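Researcher: I've got a protein sequence and the SMILES for guanosine-5'-triphosphate. Could you write out the 3D structure of the bound complex as structure tokens? I'd like something to compare against our soaking experiments later this week.
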Amino acid sequence: MSLSSSILPSQVEETLAACPHGVGKSSLVSSIFNISKEQTGVQHGRAGVADINREYTSPSNPRFILHDSQGFEAGSAVNWGTVQSFIKAKCEEKELKNRLHAIWLCLETPRTGSRLLETGDQNLLRTAQELQIPVIVVFTKYDVLFNEKYNELQAEDEEKEYEELEPIAETKAAAALKERLREFTDFDFSSVSWAQVSTGKDYKDVKGRLDMLQELTRVTRKCLHNVEADLWPSWAAAQQVNARQKIYFSIQEGFKKYWRDLGENTVYEKHRLIECMARIRDDILLVWNFNDPDKLLVSQEFGSKMFEFVKEFLPEPVTTSDFSATSDYVSVAAAIVPVLGQIVAAGSMITSFAKAAYSGYQRGHSTAVCLRVYITDLTLILHHLFLATLVCEPPRPITPELVDETVRLYQNGDASRIHKDVLGAIGRVPSNPERKIADLIKFEVTGGREWDSEDHL
Ligand SMILES: Nc1nc2c(ncn2[C@@H]2O[C@H](COP(=O)(O)OP(=O)(O)OP(=O)(O)O)[C@@H](O)[C@H]2O)c(=O)[nH]1
Ligand SMILES: [Mg+2]
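Model: Sure. Here is the predicted complex with guanosine-5'-triphosphate in place.
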């Protein structure tokens, strides 16, 4: 008779399944940078084989280069040596883009009786401090500590409901982590920034988990502060969970050039209005960095929709001698930024709306109003779109349905009120009107309260 164990479930397999290998580095990267789990190599039940010298980039997020290291398990001195050489080589790089900007040291959130730091982790902390590379300690799988506290509470009183125990378990877990770090004598955790995260689906709701990831983006951004200011917009573009950082940096970048003195800005001279709008749009999109495989946000269709919002504010068209016949409009539409090409070609009739868009940029109040409305509408629509994608699993590609629905909701909801607010913010005798528009955008995004530095830091 053959010996079979299959009718009795394996205890070892059950235990292994309950303690998945890996601290959750790849899962974290997938969530924050919106890269599919397959691409980041999330491993279930076996160790990931990471080579720190390999650059991970993703078509869904081209602004980001990740170097993933294997864990520093006890005794794996070889691995630490590889990581150390890599860090030192990166420090010698001259160009900002080739340097190492920050290290996330991912540690499993300590539980009762578990280890906090391996020797390799301590080496890394010391080396990074010596070389002045910002390190953020990320305590992963925080849900496991929460569950430990929850189970202890439940064991004390089995009658109590989840809703009652949950906030107490949260407080206990947070206190336990702080206490553990405070008591730890081999390393002073108050000398580094840290944050706790959980990407496990069973912990909190989507919003609760996102709050933790957003906090990590704030902590990271604060650390980058100490290195070089040029990193901020790159960071804002690369991270894919914190909408306010994106809003803030697209405004900051806008004010360096294209959002300034919109009715008088000489950089726009000799360009058609649609080109000016396309430049504004593309710069804003660079910061949002959507995963837009079908290029929906630079499509004619989306461009036309955005034009619909501003058409009542378009300045009177000027007809120039070199640019008046229908065929000119159509060919220019195809050749430059074909936002209105569709409308022009399909309508076979040049509306004043199309003419204004294809006219050269004209200095003056009406051009300024039109561009202010455009910037406000576009930013707020992209903000809604971003929030709508956040509930999806990485790589969160945007779809035509999502774009249509977002635009439709804005059109039927906020658009006319916001247009009035934009005009109101400018007033009759405008003083710094562009700043007022930026404030209005921030006000809308925070749901009607003052924007504070915690919103983007
Ligand atoms: N409970 C829980 N499990 C998680 C969490 N994050 C990741 N995991 C699980 O932990 C296992 C390992 O996750 P990975 O993201 O591959 O971890 P890693 O650090 O990249 O692992 P290596 O590449 O092997 O070093 C997978 O089964 C994940 O589903 C978390 O926040 N909570
Ligand atoms: Mg991994």
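Model: Residues 11-241 form a domain with the Rossmann fold fold (CATH 3.40.50). The chain has two domains: 11-241, 244-452.
Researcher: Great, I'll pass this along to the crystallography team.
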